[in-house]
Specification:
The protein is an alpha/beta fold. It has one domain: P-loop containing nucleotide triphosphate hydrolases (Rossmann fold). Helices cover about 35% and strands about 25% of the residues. It is built from 9 helices and 10 strands. The strands form 2 sheets. The chain has a 6-stranded mixed β-sheet, sandwiched between helices. Strands 2-1-4-5 form a 4-stranded antiparallel β-sheet, covered by helices on one side. The longest helix is centred in the last third of the chain and has 17 residues. The N and C termini lie far apart (about 40 Å).
């Protein structure tokens, strides 16, 4: 069974008297262990799609099935539980709580779910080791660099053993060298944690780490590249993007 399915997804917004179509007839299937990147020009609907896939917003039409749960058949409380227990989120601006240590920020989803951090101490330690922050576990966000904060956010995204991790421009606020280390870390989690990742990015270099790249334009899927086609090379992705931005 796929981890994520989107079937004939539409999203429309009312802006004054004008009905704006942000997404139109989106079909997407993500299998376990896949790393999928979503790209497109500004305003193409990338972040809107990611929010729908994660149950942060609802489509105007169509069905999203997340971890075997058709979201349209769930009430708000049930969707919140699916998000909390089945999905990890990584954001561009980290979204760490400034008063908590790295260790406490990683464990925050467990606390929100009413679980004990003491019980999950070994898991949190293992994740901090995976992201290279074992020696920074007691540091607060203002004592960490941007790259280190994003590593904390990545560890946090995996602490609830999610079915899927959704990443919105995870390297967009980082310099090139730090961004590369974050992308290598995400790539490694697919192997070591058998993770499933869907990442929105505007950066062809970031998208080259994915197994599959899906291109949006004006809310429509217009092209797809697989790992066998782009070979983890940046140029084929840049060529597609150049065509979309004409």
């Amino acid at each position: 069974m796929p981890v994520l399915e989107a079937n004939q997804i539409k999203k429309q917004y009312q802006m004054g008297e004008v009905l704006v179509s942000a997404l139109e007839n989106i079909n997407l299937t993500v299998q376990q262990g896949e790393f999928v990147a979503i790209m497109g020009p500004s305003g193409s609907g990338k972040s809107t799609l990611l929010h729908l896939l994660g149950g942060l917003d609802g489509p105007s039409a169509g069905e999203i099935t997340l971890a075997g749960q058709p979201l349209s058949k769930l009430n708000d409380n049930a969707i919140t539980l699916v998000r909390r227990r089945k999905v990890g989120f990584i954001f561009q601006f980290y979204n760490l709580l400034p008063t908590l240590t790295a260790e406490e920020n990683v464990g925050l989803p467990l606390l929100i779910d009413g679980q004990s951090l003491t019980k999950h101490h070994a898991k949190i330690s293992r994740l901090l080791e995976l992201v290279g922050l074992s020696e920074r576990r007691h540091h607060k966000p203002d004592q960490l660099s941007g790259g280190q904060q994003q590593r904390v956010a990545i560890a946090r995204a995996f602490v609830n053993d999610p079915e899927i991790v959704l990443a919105d421009e995870p390297t967009g606020n980082l310099d090139s060298k730090t961004g590369t280390s974050i992308l290598e870390l995400l790539r490694r989690t697919c192997t070591e944690l058998h993770a499933t990742i869907v990442m929105v990015t505007h950066d062809p270099r970031a998208a080259s780490y994915a197994d599959r790249v899906i291109f949006l334009k004006d809310g429509i899927v217009v092209r797809e590249l697989t790992h066998t086609e782009h070979g983890r090379a940046v140029q084929p992705i840049m060529d597609v993007m150049a065509g979309l931005e004409l």
